[in-house]
Specification:
By secondary structure, the chain is mostly helical. The chain is built from eleven helices and four strands; from the N terminus they run βααβααααααββααα. Helices cover 63% and strands 4% of the residues.
């Protein structure tokens, strides 16, 4: 019917709601937000992008369940006077030994319950590995995520979710805007001529930001002794600033590189940092 259909971020629409929340005030807020010259729109995702996101959300939910189960096992054991180090790897290692120890005071019911929880933990591990294999296959099937793998610090998990988020790259005017949308840029608290830059803004998708920074950390840990331009840049940055700031800087660079690859439909070209 000649209308231009756009998606607005609900976070920015909420700021224009006046009074209590109802349909009239919501509609008025949407109208006010959409008529603003600097409105924040959300790119429409196709079916393949939505499926990638769904797969990652299912995997994250399984990880949350495994973490909750691990904490529950540690808590129950501590209540019975058995303290083990935290972490899923420690639970996998220590719980079978505890179940086999006949002198730790556990009753037959307690052993049965802990055995069931240990079996459930193994089932969650298998489900997560199955999702990882599915993500690896999906990464190879998608041309954009397959090209993303050439970037240092980007693996199949990061490549697929970044391909889902970026799409064709037309949702942002430039790479700096995309990096800012992920929250890997300094937060400002400036006034007048006084420019104050704080820590990273942490806006946008926390899951994407976490994956980018973790990937950057793995690159920095392995860059010692290397002489390529990127490694030399990272070595100097770590020495001049610190490890965490260098990781965020590399995450910012990778976000901009991935956006440019999607926007230009090009392959990764390693250049001097």
């Amino acid at each position: 019917m000649g209308h231009e259909v756009i998606l607005l971020n609900a976070r920015y629409v909420k700021a224009f709601v006046v009074g209590n929340k109802n349909d009239f005030n919501d509609a008025e807020a949407i109208y006010t937000a959409v008529t603003r010259p600097n409105k924040r729109t959300v790119a429409v995702k196709n079916l393949e992008q939505q499926e990638m996101q769904m797969l990652h959300r299912l995997r994250q939910d399984l990880i949350y369940q495994r973490t909750a189960l691990t904490n529950r096992i540690c808590g129950f054991l501590s209540e019975l006077g058995i303290v083990i180090p935290q972490g899923v790897n420690q639970v996998r290692k220590q719980l079978p030994l505890i179940l086999e120890d006949a002198k730790n005071g556990l009753t037959s019911l307690s052993r049965e319950l802990f055995a069931e929880m240990y079996e459930a933990l193994g089932k969650l591990d298998d489900d997560i590995k199955a999702q990882d294999r599915r993500i690896n296959r999906l990464c190879q099937q998608n041309s954009l995520s397959r090209r993303f793998l050439d970037v240092l610090g980007i693996g199949p998990i990061t490549a697929t979710i970044m391909a889902s988020d970026i799409g064709d790259g037309k949702g942002y005017a430039k790479s700096r805007d995309y990096a800012a949308s992920l929250g890997v840029v300094p937060r400002q608290h400036s006034s007048g001529d006084k420019l104050v830059l704080l820590g990273i803004s942490k806006r946008g998708n926390r899951y994407l930001r976490t994956l980018l920074i973790h990937g950057a950390r793995s690159v920095i840990k392995c860059c010692t002794g290397k002489t390529d331009p990127l490694s030399r840049w990272l070595q100097a940055l770590v020495e001049r600033r610190d490890f965490n700031k260098a990781a965020v800087a590399l995450a910012n660079k990778n976000a901009r590189v991935l956006w440019a690859m999607a926007k230009q439909n090009s392959a990764y070209e390693a250049t001097a940092a």
